[in-house]
Design brief:
two-stranded antiparallel sheet, 32% helix, signal, 12 strands, transmembrane helix, single chain, transmembrane, 14 helices, EC 3.2.1.39
Length: 480
């Protein structure tokens, strides 16, 4: 975890998604009455089914997701439970996803049969050798093959906050080749494990307002473009470590505490048509906008780390308290499990891993770094959380959950209903061989005309479309 000093790199994220491709067909031309030639029924039905078959693979790039939270399980302490004890604790909390920072054998064995989804990390120094396909294959043989399928390993994160250290830029260029070698090894063994990396907010050179998000020039084209292409090709997520706490801590004169804690009732930022009630959404949307500029707005985001410490750094007092840590994580869970997405990418689920499971007394960086856990080393709660998003009774001076982003930004992205077609659009063109006869159009069509005719013809056509749309929805709803 890196403390980001540039407070203007606070507003970060990026994401378009299959949800934005899903459209509710609710066109009610109440002021026009049209009878459609029955000979067009099959044409409409076949056309709709062809659209379904072509569109659904592109829209369903990501597997059906379970709305549950994840946790970061670090082991930098001398007083922590055993791996098997930690796994039992995680399962008892109702958490279903766990992220490890390394492929520790004892922990992977302990996770066997637990049903937990496991994300495995590796250090940045492990990347250079993996550009050799044989070494990458051996890594899979040693760290993955012995544990699957008993241990449900879903993702390998290659490196953590790699782009923070500019003195090691040579490793940046080795990231994607290493990931490709690991991917080839997994495929050769029939394993459908995803690969990604855990990046950081300072990959951005500009982040305010969120729509102006731009990646640093030293990583945008040489590193991130091939990375996003790989993630797109393999339907994987771009993982980001997102810490509103550091944004508030480093620039509290500008960043209100309620904006960082998800408790603000009015927008702090209005960026075009998007209103931002919390800092995390702004951070994610700055990343999303930057991704769109590189042509990869369809790659989904996941949050590999986020949280709030219960003890502040030396000389920094005010919001580093158990109360605020509970408030942040409570509202985070509600926000994520409510599938609110972000203003730029509304209505989607963002896989999220809270940092961290335990307070870790050997972590470098001082007392604050050692107190991010939701549990003490003995397994008791530092503060209580309802991991399924139920009421946590968090304490906050202002309401804990921000209101809906805006009436115009619903939870599921639904475009406005189209305007009624013009008369020329309803009338067939003179050259159309299958056009509707003028007698099929009820005289007097205009703004004062009534709703659709009750004729058997229209009922049949609407029936065909209803069936088609139901099938279409059945295919697309799992994508959300």
């Amino acid at each position: 975890m890196v403390l980001i000093k540039d407070s203007r790199v606070l507003f970060n994220e990026a994401e378009n998604d299959c949800v934005t491709n899903r459209r509710r067909v609710n066109r009610e031309w109440s002021h026009r009455t049209v009878l459609i030639n029955p000979s067009l029924w099959n044409y409409f039905y076949v056309l709709a089914m062809l659209v379904l078959m072509v569109a659904s693979p592109a829209l369903c790039n990501y597997a059906t997701e379970e709305n549950t939270m994840g946790i970061n399980y670090g082991r930098v302490g001398d007083n922590l439970p055993t791996s098997s004890g930690a796994v039992k604790i995680i399962s008892s909390l109702g958490i279903t996803r766990v992220r490890l920072f390394d492929p520790d054998a004892a922990t992977l064995l302990a996770l066997g049969g637990s049903g937990l989804e496991v994300v495995i990390g590796m250090g940045n120094d492990a990347i250079p050798p993996l550009i050799d396909p044989a070494v990458a294959d051996q890594w899979i043989v040693q760290h993955i093959v012995p544990y699957v399928p008993s241990t449900n390993i879903t993702t390998i994160l290659v490196g953590n906050e790699l782009f923070t250290d500019t003195t090691r830029a040579s490793i940046w260029l080795q990231l994607v080749p290493a990931m490709k070698n690991l991917h080839s090894s997994l495929l050769s063994r029939g394993l459908s494990i995803k690969l990604s990396t855990a990046a950081e907010l300072n990959t951005l050179s500009w982040s305010y307002p969120p729509s102006k998000g731009v990646f640093r020039t030293d990583v945008a084209v040489p590193v991130l473009t091939p990375l996003f292409q790989f993630l797109n090709d393999t339907n994987s997520y771009f993982y980001i470590n997102v810490y509103p706490y550091f944004g508030w801590r480093d620039d509290s004169a500008f960043i209100p505490l309620d904006y960082a804690l998800f408790t603000r009732k009015t927008p702090f930022i209005v960026d075009g048509s998007h209103s931002y009630y919390n800092l995390m959404d702004a951070q994610l949307d700055a990343i999303a906008a930057a991704m769109e500029r590189l042509g990869f707005g369809n790659v989904r985001l996941a949050i590999s780390e986020t949280g709030w410490p219960t003890v502040g750094a030396a000389g920094n007092v005010g919001a580093d308290t158990t109360t605020n840590a509970k408030t942040y994580n409570t509202n985070l869970i509600r926000h994520i499990l409510g599938r609110k997405g972000t203003p730029r990418r509304p209505g989607i689920f963002i896989p999220t891993f809270i940092f961290a499971l335990f307070n870790e007394n050997l972590k470098p960086g001082g007392v604050s770094e050692q107190n991010w856990g939701v549990l003490y080393p003995n397994g008791t709660e530092v503060y209580s959380l309802q991991w399924k998003g139920l009421d946590n009774n968090a304490t906050s001076a202002s309401p804990m959950v921000a209101p809906a982003i805006a009436p115009s930004l619903p939870v599921v992205a639904t475009p406005p209903s189209p305007s009624p077609p013009s008369a020329s659009a309803l009338s067939p063109s003179p050259s159309s061989s299958s056009s509707v006869d003028s007698s099929s159009v009820v005289p007097g069509v205009g703004p004062s005309a009534g709703p659709l005719s009750n004729s058997a013809t229209n009922r049949a056509v609407l029936g065909w479309f209803s069936v088609t749309l139901a099938i279409f929805a059945a295919f697309l709803i799992p994508c959300v």
